[in-house]
Structure formats: structure tokens, C-alpha cells
Amino acid sequence: MHHKASPEIFKRAKELRTKLTPSESILWERLRAKRLNNLHFRSQHPISKYILDFYCHQYQLGIELDGEVHDNFDQKERDKARQEDLNALGILVLRFKNQFVIQETEEVLRLILLEIEKIKKSISK
User: Fold this and answer.
1) 117 pLDDT exceeds 90?
2) Given CA atoms 78, 83, 86, 87 in this order, what sign does their dihedral have?
3) Are 34 and 42 in contact, with CB atoms under 8 Å apart?
4) Above 90 in pLDDT, residue 123?
5) Can you give the residue ranges of the DUF559 domain (predicted)?
6) 18, 29, 67, 101: which sits with the fewest CB atoms below 10 Å from its CB?
């Protein structure tokens, strides 16, 4: 479930859980305690050398919320490499802009559920 995440990554994840960004707080309020269709999500979940903003182990679905820093070229390259690493571990990652989460929370939740339905269909094949 953690793909050999180091103790340092676990420590950092614990710290991040106490300092959620406004968009993370908004989404976490809707995901926590199985509030979204009884799905279990974790916040600031360590996987390998990364920390996913949110993670649903049942469907191996990660959710990342991106601020403006993710618009810069170098960060885009790092995000792409991270995405490839996580995909290689069998984890699908959805990315949403912070502003989109804040302004269109219901749409974000709908898109998450839509992706989970696609995953369910691929599993049942």
C-alpha cells in the first residue's frame, strides 16, 4: 500500500496533514470518513518517495491538487516524471487545479466518481 515509503516520507506526510491548503481542506471535508459514496480516502498518503494529496487504495486512485507553481516548466517536468512513476506502480492519478476545486467542488467530486466507475468497469472485464 505504501510501496516502501521511507520513515522520512511518513513523517513529512504527517506534517502535511496538519497544514492542508484551502483547496485540500475543501476537498478533504467531502472525501473524509467515507462521505463520497462510502469510498475510503486517505489524506497526504505516502507512496514510494511521494506523498499523494488524497488516495483511495481500493481503486488505486490518487488525487493531486495543483497550485500555480505547477504551471512552471520545471515543475511540469517533475509532475510528469512523478505521474509516470506512480502509474508504473499501478496508481492512476487525477490532477485538479486548486481554483477549480474551490470554485467547482461538485464537478471535481463528479469527475472522481466518473473515474472510479471507469476503474470498476476495467476491473470487471
Assistant:
1) yes
2) negative
3) no
4) no
5) 11-116
6) 18
Residue matched to cell numbers 492542508: 20
Sheet order of strands, 61-66 included: 42-47, 50-56, 61-66, 92-97
In a domain, 1, yes or no: no
In this structure, which amino acid lies at residue 20? L
Domain contains 91: yes
Domain that holds residue 82: 7-124
Cβ contact 112:37 at 8 Å? no
Give the span between the Cα atoms of 38 and 67, in whole angstroms: 28
What CATH number is given to the structural domain containing 116? Answer: 3.40.960.10
Please name every residue paired with 43 in a beta bridge, in sequence order, or none if there are none: 54
Query: Of 114, 84, 108, 85, nearest to 24 (Cα)?
Result: 108
The tens digit of pLDDT for each residue in 65-82 reads 987 766 676 777 888 899
Q: Which of 37, 35, 17 is nearest to 25 (CA)?
A: 17
Q: CA 91, 50, 20, 115: dihedral to nearest 10 degrees?
A: -10
Can you tell me the distance from the alpha carbon of 8 to that of 81, in angstroms, rounded to the nearest whole number? 21
Is 71 within a domain?
A: yes
